[in-house]
Amino acid sequence: MWDGSGSWVGATAKDIARAVRRGDTSATQVVADHLDYIAAQESALGAFRVIRAAAAITEAEAVDEQDDLANLPLAGVPIAVKENTQVAGLPTWYGSAAARLTVAEEDHEVVRRLRGAGAIVVATSRMPELGLWGVTDDQTAITRNPWRTDRTPGGSSGGAAAAVAAGLVPIAHGNDGLGSVRIPAACCGLVGVKPGRGVVPARMPVEDWFGLTEHGILATTVADATVGLSVLAGWAPVRLVQPDKLRIAVTTRSPVQGVRPDKPARDALHAAARLLVTAGHDAVGASPRYPTGLGLRGMATWFAAAYRDVELAGRDRAQLQPRTRRHVAIGEWAWRRGLVRERDRAAWRTYCEQWFGQGHDVLLTPALAATPPPAVDWHARPWRANLLANLRYAPYAAPWNIAGFPAVVVPMGVRPDGLPVAVQLVGPPGSELTLLGVAGQLEQASPWLRHAPGWPRTRGVGATIGA
Which residue, among 174, 143, 173, has the nearest Cα to 379 in the 3D structure? Predict the structure, then answer.
C-alpha cells in the first residue's frame, strides 16, 4: 500500500484502484507520479519502447471525470502494454524497426478491456525481434534486469518484467508463446500468469504461433495478478479462496534432454513443496513424460512460427537481425516439409489431460534451470549462441503452450548470485484460479520482495519509495 512518501510509485494496483475509487487520490495524480519516476529512472533499464506521457495524462483525466468509478477494478492504474499488441495511434513494434508494423487504428481487445477497467496505458514495453528469445535487446537498447543490471530480465516480455520489478508500473501486460510471460517473471521475481487456451482472446496482429500465444499479466502480488487476469478474461471480479486439499506432483524433470536444474532451482522447488504440504496439500514425486518428439516438434513450431510471421506480414528478411534470418530460414525448411502439425499438438494435449486426470491436480516444476544470461547485445551474436543460451536456462515453459494449459510462475526467494528464483505451477484447462490460489498460499507462507532491491528509487537516490 501507499507509504505516505508523497508518491504512488511502488503501490500495488489494487491499492491504487481502491484509493482512486474512494476519492483518496486521482488517476491523474497517480499517473503523474509514475511518469515523473519513469522520466528519472527508465533509461537505466531500457524497459519501454514508447512512453505516452501526454496521452496518459489526458486519459487519466478522463477517468477522473467519470461519474461512477465503483465498477473499475483498475481505476487509475498505470500499465505497460507489450509492443506487439495494438495500441491505437502507435506503431505496433515487434522488437525492432525492421519488424515494426504500421500505426494501429484501434486498440487490441485486451487493451480495450484494460482501458475499460480504468487502467491507463503509460508505455509500450520492449521485446526481442519477433518475440523469439528469452533475452530482450535490439540495435537501440539492451533491456536490463533491475535485480542486477548486468543480467537480462528475460523475454520476450522482458521490458514488461523489468518495468514492474523496478516499480515503473505496478502491473504489466505481456504475451506468452513459449514462455514469454513466465520466463521474465522468473528472472525478475514476479508473479507471471499464462492463462489456458481460449480464456483471453489472442488475436495477434500477424500470427499467434499456431495457437500457442496467450495474453497474460506480470505483477508483484498474487492479488494484482488475479485482478489483471480477470480483466483480460472478461470475468466478473473474483476473490481467491484457499483451495481444497490438492494432490501436487513435484518434478525436476526437464523437457529438454541434457538440461538439468541447478541447485538454487532445485532448492526452491523443494521449499515450495514443503510449504504446500504444510498448507494441507499432498505432494508426490511425479512427472508427465516428455517424449523426444515433443522437443523436436516444439522447436520446429518455434522456427516455423517465425517464418509464418515474416511471410504473412510481408517483412523484408534482409532487414532483420542475423539471428532472426537464420531462425526464419530454418522455419521455412520445417514448414515446407510438414514438420509442424496440429495433430502432434493435439496428441500432447490429450496425453496431458489424461495425466492430470490420473489424480494430479497441479504440477510443480522449477521456473528456470539456471540464472538468467548476461544483458548483452544478443541480437548481434550468432543464432546458435542465442539458441543454446535460451535452451539451457529456460526449458520448462514451452510444453504448456503446446498443450494450451494454464501456468503461473511464483517467486521463491533469491539465488546466491542475488537474482530471484521461482517455481512454476501448471494445471489442467480451467484451473487458473486454482493455480492462483496455490500461488497465494506460497505468498502467504513465504512472502517475497515485491520489487528488486533498491527499487523503486527516489530521483537520483537509491532509497526505496515502496515496500
Answer: 143
Which band of pLDDT confidence, cut at 50, 70 and 90, is reported for residue 5? low
Whether the per-residue pLDDT at 368 is higher than 90: the answer is yes
- Model confidence at 76: pLDDT above 50: yes
Rg (CA), the chain: 20
Inter-axis angle of helices 342-357 and 292-313, nearest 10: 130
Is the pLDDT at 150 greater than 90? The verdict is yes
Phi-psi region of 309 (alpha: psi -120 to 50; beta: other; left: phi over 0): alpha
Report the chain's mean pLDDT, rounded to a whole number. 95
Q: If you search the block for the grid coordinates 500495488, which residue do you land on?
A: 12
156 is catalytic: yes
DSSP string, 358-426: TT--EEEEES-SSPPPB-S-GGGS-HHHHHHHHHHH--SSHHHHHHT--EEEEEEEE-TTS-EEEEEEE
Look up residue 310 and give its three cell numbers.
515474416
96, 125, 156, 431: the catalytic one is 156
Q: What is the pLDDT of residue 413?
A: 97
Domain boundaries, the chain: 13-285+358-445
Helix (H, G, I), strand (E, B) or coil at 348: helix
Indicate the fold that domain 13-285+358-445 takes in CATH.
Answer: Amidase signature (AS) enzymes (3.90.1300)
Query: Tens digits of per-residue pLDDT, 344-361?
Result: 999 999 999 999 999 999
Is position 82 annotated as part of the catalytic site? yes
User: In the chain, pLDDT over 90 holds for what percent of residues?
Assistant: 94
Query: Do 163 and 169 touch, CB atoms closer than 8 A?
Result: yes
pTM for the structure as a whole: 0.96
Distances in Å between the Cα of 351 and the Cα atoms of 294, 337, 345, 356, 402 are: 12, 25, 10, 9, 12
Out of 96, 125, 157, 180, the active site residue is 180
291 φψ region: left (φ > 0), alpha (ψ -120 to 50), beta (else): beta
Does residue 180 carry a catalytic annotation? yes
Over residues 229-259, the pLDDT tens digits come to 999 999 998 889 889 999 999 999 999 999 9
Distance CA 230, CA 222 (A): 12
